[in-house]
Amino acid sequence: MFYNLTKSVDETIELKDINMKDDNVYAGYINFDEFEEIYSCFGLSENIIAECENNRESIRSNIDVYEDYSCGYITVIKQALLHEKLDRVAYFIKKNLFLIVKLKDENESTLAMFEAALKKYKDSITLEKIIFAYFERMINGDNKILESMGNRITALEENMINAVPDNMINRQIFRFKKELLTFRDYYEQLIDVGEELQENENHLFSEEDLKYIRLFTGKVNRLLGSVMSLMDMAVQLREVYEATLDINLNSIMKVFTVITTIFLPLTVITGWYGMNFNFMPELQWRYGYLYVIVFGIVIVSVCIVYFKKKKLM
C-alpha cells in the first residue's frame, strides 16, 4: 500500500500514481515479494534484493547511506510478547519517500505501527515527521514496561530479604537480565539508526526538520539509560541473593557450632570414662553413674545459659 501524504493519509494510491520528481511526500508498506517486483521503480540497486534476503534472520540493525537514498534493517521487539519471535523490516528513505518492506512479521504488528504513524500527523506532513512517527511507535509504551520491570525487581528484592531465597528467585533474576539485555540491544540499534540519519550525509532531510530525528534519538537514549539503571539493579539483586545465601549458611553453621560446643564436654567425659584403667574410683562408687549423668546435665545447662547470654542461641 502507498500513500501520498501531501494530499491525504486516508486513501491509498497505486504505484503508477507515484511521481518521484514532484514535491509530494510518499510513504509505503509492502512485503518482500512485492518489493522484488517494483524496487527498480524507485531507482534502487539490484543488490538490495540480496541484502534484504540475507538480513531476514539477522538480529542487529544496520544502515547504509547512498548518494540519493538511505536504507537499513531493524529488528522490532514486540514489547508485550518479548519471548516470542522478533519482527524484521527493511526501510528505504529518499528525498520524498519513506518505504517499509516487511521481511518477517507473523501478526502484522509492523503494519499496525505504520498505520498508527500515518495518523499522528495530518497537516503539513514532512518526510522527517513520518519517519519520526514510525520509529517512535517502536518504543511506544516502553516507559511503562521499564517502570513495571523496576517494580518487579524491587518486589523480588523485598521477597529475598523477608524470605529464604530459593532457586526460583535465581531463575527470575536470570530472566530479568535476559530481558534487559534484549532491550539494551534493541535501543542501541535504534540509536545507531537515529545518529546515522542525523548525519544527513546525502542531504535527504531539511535542517529545520532534523529536530524530529534528534528528538527520537534523545528519547531512545533516555530509555537506554533506564535500561542500564535496571541492569545495575539486577546486578545488585544478584549480590543481595548471594549475600542472603551466605547469611543463611552462616546462621546454619552457627547453630551447628553451638550444638557441637555444648556437647563437646560430654564427648570428653564419655572418652574419659571409656578408658580401661584399673583404678578409677567412680567405677566402684554406688552413685557414680548418677553422678556422671547429673554432671553432664549441669555442664550442658551452663553452656546453654552462657550462649543465650551471648545471644548465640
- Give the percentage of residues in beta strands: 5-15%
Uncertain residue ranges: none
Please tell me how large the radius of gyration is: 35 Å
Structural class, from secondary structure content?
Answer: alpha+beta
C-alpha end-to-end distance = 76 Å
- Count the E strands: 7
Assembly type: single chain
Q: What order do the strands of the largest sheet run in, or round the barrel if closed?
A: 2-1-3-7-6-5-4
- Count, helices: 9
The string of secondary-structure elements, in order, is EEEHHEEEEHHHHHHH
Provide mean pLDDT, rounded.
80
**How much helix, percentage-wise, in residues?**
55-70%
Which of globular, elongated, flat, extended, rod-shaped describes the shape? rod-shaped
Largest sheet: 7 strands, mixed
Which key phrases capture this entry?
313 residues; alpha+beta; 7 strands; rod-shaped
Structure summarized in a few sentences:
The protein contains nine helices and seven strands, in the order E-E-E-H-H-E-E-E-E-H-H-H-H-H-H-H. With 313 residues, the chain is of the alpha+beta class. 25% of the residues are buried.
Describe the overall structure.
By secondary structure, the protein is of the alpha+beta class. Helix content is 58%, strand content 12%. Strands 2-1-3-7-6-5-4 form a seven-stranded mixed sheet. It starts with a strand and ends with a helix. The mean pLDDT is 80.
List the helices and strands and how they pair.
Elements: E1 2-4, E2 12-13, E3 26-31, H1 32-38, H2 47-54, E4 62-65, E5 70-76, E6 87-94, E7 97-104, H3 109-120, H4 127-137, H5 142-162, H6 167-199, H7 210-273, H8 281-284, H9 288-309
Parallel strand pairs: 3-7
Antiparallel strand pairs: 1-2, 1-3, 4-5, 5-6, 6-7
Helix pairs in contact: 3-4, 4-7, 5-7, 6-7, 7-9
